[in-house]
Design a protein that fits this description.
The complex is a heterotetramer of chains A (288), B (235), C (338) and D (254). Helices cover 73% and strands 3% of the residues of chain A. Chain A has eleven helices and two strands; from the N terminus they run H-H-H-H-E-E-H-H-H-H-H-H-H. The termini of chain A are far apart. Chain D folds into two domains: 164 residues, Rossmann fold (3-Layer(aba) Sandwich), CATH 3.40.50; 82 residues, P-loop containing nucleotide triphosphate hydrolases (Rossmann fold, 3-Layer(aba) Sandwich), CATH 3.40.50.300. The chains are: A mainly alpha (288), B alpha/beta (235), C mainly alpha (338), D alpha/beta (254). Chain A: It comes from Parageobacillus thermantarcticus.
Chain lengths: 288, 235, 338, 254
């Protein structure tokens, strides 16, 4: 039983990271209806920026994370302005390919600047904590708590503030939003800002447990896609719930099936979903 | 108040609207008549800045607005209640109305007043304020769309086919409400296929045909015009 | 008609040049690069059939390229099969796997299809990487034989290998040509245009999509098998996403949905790569932005652009000619419309 | 009768789009479906052509139950349709667009394409011939080699008709054939629709332009809120009180 709960906690950790990444992806999808294949590259860049801030500038962990969130958020905004905005009326094939181009560039860029090696990220929260008879590192606890905190913040932002509500409004009806006087370009930029920051945060939180390397975004982005297909493309709660479902499935799968194949679980889920429902689960009517 | 001068709009190689002149004075109800695809919606979209014009100019209160973005045009006081309603279907009625007041978002008291005003005009919206917009009936959605447009306190309200898809009783109600909105001081530009009902409340009208204005005149003149009668009222 | 004749002339010239290339430039290095380009072209044609004509952007094709290559390697080295039998089987096996994937994948559309195939591609890469008993994993797979002799013809020299690959390329182009300009090709284009409309005119879209998907994978895995026997060493990287992106870039630069786009795009991009060799692993620093800029500013690609320009010109000519002959009636019509 | 629906019902979630509709399309006639926007006309069309699966009820075509057949098989049986907005391939010629319409009557496969068999050549000629034939029928022979993007809206409508006709249909479903077309051009389309019926093709259409319907339809069904509220000849419909109230609007009574 204790072992089982331990696994649940692991699932919660992994799921938190997945949810953060999927949240950014789903927000952008909701606004622009494009699957941003470059989102994983933003995640990777987020890891590197935090790491660099800590190692080169000697900044403390938290400050480094904040800077990284700002930098990657701005990078997201740039992508929106320079790439996705000019492609807003292009056929659907185009923005996907453009996103792939960005992904290639950012990966090559990371490799060029930081090298291809795997790097570790130090954390001030390395010690082991005992909680109700369970052992876990403080870093894991941090991931869970800060993710939940961010999600609560995001919820209040989207639900309780005018500015946040514009994102929801625009994802439900772009022209409708424009016609009540919302500047949709600003909203799109803001969404990319949030999306990028969330990716940077996720990477910075996860990196002390995993590692930092140019390809670190690949698996994460693929899984984030599975999550938003699971939770409904464009749905915010769906991304959170989907993220945790995948996190739990993986940590349980790693224990009870095989650790080597835990990464396959996400794809098995995807195959099952799309076999049953080719348009993904929870597709809602009336979404334009 | 609003003037369209020689406006043409092009979709690719297709000219949707050609050389259109429209003049709306303060306090009027002006109706654009014409069948599906005659160019009425295109004119509306162009006034709102959703489409760019290829020729001509649009002047509102002495300023050229044809290069403005849609949100800026809303801020000037031109608000459109578009065809297809364009509601936020997974937000509640209340949230939809609130978004309508987006440009006044910092003035809480003003929002409250507008909200009460809209609830007075459409009591059903108050009753259903916590329902999702997507769950409303067609008529209620149309009311919500108009209510949302009113929340921004427009000087000029563009109504694109408010009677579309409504039961006859509600159509009549709708036109009464439009009249009332106008009496309270909002200038209205209306696009309609339901010529009969629209001409009853309008001061003057323009008849669209194939992207151009075929006939124009006061409501009485249009009523008396045989061609208009035949083509758009159908008896 | 004149345009078609002109096209045929250009094609004939290109083939002549390809045939004469080893004589014109007797340099083993260039020969090697040319052979490799031909292999990529075959793979790009595979992608083009699906993405360009049927309208489904698959991101799993590098995976199938790798399956073709590894199957050949395993069948020849581990199973000891006759080379040509193994060669044939590797294409068939890849196509069969493609068939199974297609059954699920083709039920999805647009974003879902792209995401799904991206995931399939990644699974293929993971399996190759992890299953080291069979594939050699990260250490790679060595000792793959070159193509076996066919009768008196041996394929040990670079020149003979060049002609072998050229033969397959021409075969693929020929088959592509036949398909595209047939009722089958028209069916694919109808599906790309609008699947809904295709259904209402009685096209069994699922069946046609599946055939085009499997055939497209057949071509790509054929390229993979050729690659294995030409390079004779394989690493899991050939199934990696970056290879997928190479194929995409080649196709896009040349012109997606055009007959000669894959040739033009591949030649152009591989020769640019040659110039940028000093960049090595960082060539994506240049290629990534090229891909993005291309999609934004010139999505038709080189060949697509030329075709567009030509049709516009002939259309204009036709209009002015028609205008002269029947200017009266067209004037009348204009009056009516105005 | 050629096609018949029995208690046809379609629900989307809680919304009933089509409610218990019994309707028959009479052979060789022009059958029209009218009703206010949102009355369920398009859903009804989608049910007949196989794009939606009915929640309940049956669709019978020439005595055969086709309720569960997919759209492409219905097309083979002889049910063709057009869409409100034309889905033509804009970058290709009119002729090239229409040729594919006869594909369903051919049987050549990938094998035939690769080896360019006699069958393929024969069938290609057959498709081309059919395309020219239907283009002539709809009056687009002169525009056959024009790029679709450069022809007028009305010509596009005609091209869409031609594409549907190329499938050799027994019944053709026209979804708002005259939408977005000028009054004088509408007359041309009217003539074309009448010509189709005279030629022996059964027509069923949805349309908003009442004048046109009243002029050419032999039989009209009126839908309102998903239910059939009336059925009859144009004369009968014109004088039906329920219809006047529901469709022509309150103002018509006054």
């Amino acid at each position: 039983m204790e072992f089982f709960i331990q696994q649940l906690l692991n699932g919660l950790t992994v799921g938190s990271v997945y949810s953060l990444v999927a949240l950014g992806l789903t927000l952008v999808y909701g606004i622009l209806h494009i699957p941003n294949f470059a989102h994983g590259a933003l995640y990777m860049m987020g890891g590197y920026v935090t790491l660099t801030m800590m190692s080169k500038s000697g900044l403390p962990y938290w400050l480094a994370i904040v800077i990284s969130m700002i930098v990657i958020g701005t990078l997201g905004v740039l992508l929106e302005r320079l790439v996705f905005y000019p492609l807003r009326d292009a056929p659907p094939l185009h923005d996907k390919i453009a996103a792939i181009g960005i992904l290639l560039f950012l990966e090559a860029f990371a490799q060029f600047v930081w090298g291809a090696d795997y790097q570790t990220m130090p954390t001030p929260y390395g010690k082991v904590v005992n909680l109700f008879g369970l052992t876990l590192t403080a870093q894991r606890l941090l991931i869970i708590t800060s993710t939940i905190a961010i999600m609560v913040l995001l919820y209040f932002f989207l639900k309780k503030t005018f500015i946040g509500a514009t994102i929801i409004a625009m994802s439900q009806n772009r022209e409708g939003a424009n016609l009540v006087g919302i500047n949709i370009n600003k909203v799109a930029m803001m969404t990319f800002m949030i999306s990028g920051s969330l990716a940077a945060l996720a990477a910075s939180l996860a990196s002390p447990i995993n590692l930092v390397f140019p390809g670190m975004g690949h698996l994460v982005i693929l899984k984030a896609f599975v999550i938003i297909i699971l939770g409904g493309m464009g749905s915010v709660p769906g991304a959170i719930i989907g993220g945790y479902i995948l996190g739990f499935s993986e940590s349980l799968g790693a224990t009870y099936i095989s650790n080597d194949y835990k990464d396959i679980i996400a794809f098995v889920i995807l195959v099952i979903i799309l076999t049953i429902k080719p348009t993904g689960l929870f597709v809602r009517r009336g979404q334009s | 108040m609003l003037e369209l001068r020689n406006v043409s709009v092009q979709y690719g190689s297709f000219t949707a609207v050609q050389n259109v002149n429209i003049h709306v004075h303060e306090g009027e109800i002006v109706v654009l008549l014409g069948s599906n695809g005659a160019g009425k919606s295109t004119v509306f979209r162009t006034i709102s800045g959703l489409n760019k014009l290829s020729k001509g100019e649009i002047v509102f209160k002495g300023n050229r607005i044809d290069r403005y973005s849609p949100d800026r045009i809303v801020q000037l006081g031109i608000v459109q209640c578009a065809e297809g309603r364009k509601l936020f279907s997974r937000m509640t009625v209340y949230e939809n109305l609130l978004m309508g007041a987006y440009i006044h978002r910092k003035e809480k008291e003003k929002i409250k007043q507008s909200l009460n005003h809209v609830y007075e005009l459409f009591p059903i919206l108050k009753e259903k304020r916590n329902d999702l917009a997507g769950a409303l009936s067609g008529g209620q959605q149309q009311m919500l769309a108009i209510g949302r447009a009113l929340m921004s306190r427009p000087k000029l309200l563009l109504l694109d086919e408010p009677s579309i898809g409504l039961a006859p009783l509600i159509v009549e109600q709708m036109f009464q409400i439009i009249k009332q909105i106008n009496k309270e001081g909002t200038t209205i530009l209306l696009a309609e296929q339901n010529a009969h009902a629209a001409l009853h409340i309008a001061h003057k009208g323009y008849v669209f045909e194939n992207g151009t204005i075929a006939v124009q005149g006061t409501s009485q003149e249009l009523f008396a015009n045989d061609n208009v009668h035949k083509a758009y009222i159908g008896t | 008609m004149i345009a078609v004749l002109k096209q045929k002339k250009i094609a004939a010239l290109a083939i002549l040049f390809a045939l004469a290339f080893p004589l014109l430039i007797p340099n083993n290095y260039y020969l090697h690069m040319m052979t490799l380009s031909f292999i990529w072209m075959i793979a790009v044609y595979g992608l083009n059939l699906l993405a360009g004509y049927t309208g489904y952007l698959s991101l799993a094709h590098a995976g199938f390229f790798a399956i073709g290559a590894y199957t050949l390697a395993i069948l020849t080295v581990k199973a000891g099969l006759n080379f040509w039998l193994a060669f044939f089987l590797s294409c068939v096996i890849s196509s069969f796997i493609g068939f199974l994937v297609g059954l699920v994948a083709l039920r999805t559309k647009e974003h879902f299809f792209a995401i799904y195939t991206l995931c399939v591609g990644y699974i293929i890469y993971l399996v190759i990487d992890k299953w080291d008993n069979l594939t050699g994993g990260v250490r790679g797979f060595i000792g793959i034989p070159s193509p076996a002799n066919i009768g008196p013809i041996s394929f040990q020299t670079p020149v003979s290998q060049y002609y072998l690959v050229l033969f397959f390329l021409l075969l693929v182009v020929f088959v592509m040509y036949r398909i595209v300009y047939s009722l089958t090709g028209r069916t694919y284009i109808a599906i790309r245009n609008s699947e809904e409309l295709a259904l209402t005119i009685g096209i069994s879209t699922m069946k046609d999509k599946l055939v085009s998907f499997v055939l497209s994978i057949f071509f790509t895995s054929l390229a993979g098998a050729l690659y294995a026997s030409f390079i004779r060493f394989l690493g899991p990287d050939i199934g990696y996403i970056s290879v997928m992106f190479d194929l995409l870039i080649f196709l896009l630069v040349g012109g997606i949905g055009t007959m000669s786009g894959p040739v033009v795009g591949t030649l152009l991009m591989t020769s640019i790569s040659q110039q940028l060799q000093f960049l090595q692993d960082y060539r994506m620093l240049i290629f990534g932005p090229i891909l993005t800029l291309l999609v934004i500013f010139y999505p038709r690609g080189v060949v697509g652009g030329v075709i567009h320009w030509k049709t516009k010109r002939t259309e204009n000519n036709r209009d002015s000619r028609v205008g002269k002959i029947s200017s009266h009636s067209s004037n009348e019509k204009q009056v009516k419309e105005g | 009768m050629l096609l018949e629906t029995k208690n046809l019902t379609k629900r989307f979630g809680g919304l009933i789009a089509v409610n218990n509709v019994n309707f028959s399309i009479e052979r060789g006639k022009i059958n029209a479906i009218i009703g206010p926007n949102g009355a369920g006309k398009s859903t009804f069309f989608n049910l007949i052509s196989g794009f939606h699966k009915p929640t309940a009820g049956q669709i019978i075509f020439k005595g055969e139950d086709i309720t569960h057949l997919p759209a492409n098989k219905r097309a083979k049986l002889g049910i063709a349709r057009t869409f409100q907005t034309t889905h033509l391939f804009e970058q290709s010629t009119v002729l090239d667009n229409v040729i594919i319409g006869h594909r369903l009557r051919t049987s050549s496969t990938l094998f035939d394409a690769i080896f360019r068999t006699k069958r393929l050549k024969r069938e290609e000629a057959q498709c081309k011939e059919k395309a020219m034939e239907v283009l002539e029928f709809v009056g687009l022979t002169d525009a056959a080699h024009k790029i679709v993007a450069n022809i007028s809206q009305e010509e596009k409508k005609r091209a869409a008709f031609a594409l549907a006709l190329a499938t050799d249909p027994e019944v053709i479903l026209l979804d708002e054939p005259a939408a977005g077309v000028n009054p004088d051009e509408t007359e041309g389309l009217e003539e074309l629709i009448v010509k189709m019926a005279e030629y022996g093709i059964t027509v069923c259409l949805i349309e908003h332009k009442m004048q046109m319907i009243m002029k050419i339809a032999h039989k009209i069904m009126v839908l309102n809120y998903g239910e059939k509220i009336a059925e009859g000849t144009p004369e009968e419909i014109k004088n039906n009180e329920i219809v006047i109230q529901a469709y022509l609007g309150g103002s018509a009574i006054a």
